[in-house]
């Protein structure tokens, strides 16, 4: 169960700057830790996050091992037109998660 | 020299601890006056407070959502979900966590919320109990706990629990481990002071299960207690041990009247 948590205002005024908050469940194992028997715990992190607004990419971030578990990413954008925000997380071991949110611009 | 670093850090902490307690002389623990009690929330930085207060930032929300999904998911040979008996948790579970651990006639003793959920699983759902600290058990516990947020902790009304509260107090005031300190020496007698750079809180379990930044995960009160005992270099009690439940009970009694914050965020 790696359901992401998205927080986007349902309605915004045209031209308004609004905040988008995302939270996803992920262990973000650094790859630098060892087990009690000395074996290395393999790296397992989210490596990339992106957000598309009506198909156009408006935000992208690369993630690295120093980022804590359950990455929280928040950013701002300008409301242009009603539509859909699509979120995409990609990580090690084939991790891929998507989410979307509808927004109405008045 | 380098490989001795961890133990010398512990030594430093021990020295600081001894220095702190030398100042107060031979400790005779007394209860914190009711009006001086405060949740650890009061000492958080503004960032951590904001993280706890806003459900869209609080990482524990991920577990709350999982718990909400599990609540209506059928399980076990009985093929029943929590919701089939208890209905809407936002109504039926309101205030429940505020008076746990509670007396179980079946066990003839106190059980905590995690054990209550597992009893429901084995008795009513005919499913296997969930492991302590497993994601599913934490999710269900935090989802039930969330329904009591803002309500005062109501412990101390059930007479049957009185001997167990007393047992918990005994464990809380008893010196343990190689460092030979009791819980009370820190959390009753020296709260508000520092051990190295860490503030000593009063230790009220107002927000469990908590999201602890150090753990980078949600964890139960029993995990926190075991964590403290390892810090005292004592042998921690097993998950579900009566000693752990007695201490949980005593701590909830000690925090009676303080508001439930579940799910809290702590450093």
Overall description:
- The complex is a heterodimer of chains A (106) and B (267).
- Chain A contains no helices and eight strands.
- Chain A has strands at residues 5-7, 11-12, 17-23, 46-53, 56-62, 72-78, 83-91, 96-105.
- With 106 residues, chain A is an all-beta fold.
- Chain A has a single domain (5-33, 41-105), classed as Immunoglobulins (Immunoglobulin-like).
- Chain A has a five-stranded mixed β-sheet, with no helix packed on it.
- Chain B folds into two domains: 28-49 and 153-266, Cytochrome c-like domain (Cytochrome Bc1 Complex, Chain D, domain 2); 61-146, Orthogonal Bundle (Cytochrome Bc1 Complex, Chain D, domain 2), CATH 1.10.760.10.
- Chain B has helices at residues 5-24, 46-53, 61-71, 82-86, 89-92, 113-123, 135-146, 162-173, 183-187, 221-231, 242-254; strands at residues 102-104, 109-111, 194-195, 198-199, 210-212, 217-219, 265-266.
- In chain B, strands 6-5-7 form a three-stranded mixed β-sheet. Chain B has a two-stranded antiparallel sheet with strand order 1-2.
- In chain B, a hairpin with a 4-residue loop joins strand 5 and strand 6 (217-219).
- The longest helix of chain B is centred in the first third of the chain and has 20 residues, at 5-24.
- The A-B interface holds A 1, 3, 5, 7, 21, 23-25, 27-28, 68-70, 72 and B 56-57, 59, 61-62, 65-66, 69, 135, 139, 213, 216-217.
